[in-house]
Amino acid sequence: MSTVGILASDGSNRQKVVLTATLFMGLAHIIYFRQYLKGAIYALLEVIFIIFIPTIVRRISSLIILGEPQPDLPIMQRDNSMFMLIDGVITIIIIAIFFVIYYLSVKDATHEYHDYCINHGEYKSNRSSFANLLGKAFPVVGLAPSIGLVVFFVLVPLLFSAAVAFTNYASPGHIPPGNTVDWVGSENFTSLFGGSSEWTSAFIRVAIWTLTWATAATVTCYFGGLLMAVVLHESKILIKPFFRTIFILPYAVPAVVSMLVWQNLLNGTFGIINRTLIEIGVMSTPIPWLSDASLVKFVVVAINLWAGFPYFMLLSMGTMTAISADVYEAAKIDGASKFQVFRRISLPLVLYQTMPLIIMSFTHNVNNFGAIFFLTGGGPTAADSTTSGAGATDILVTWIYKLTINLQQYKYAAVIAVLIFVVLAPFAIWNFSRTKSYREGEL
Question: The CATH number of the domain where 255 resides is what?
Answer without folding.
Answer: 1.10.3720.10
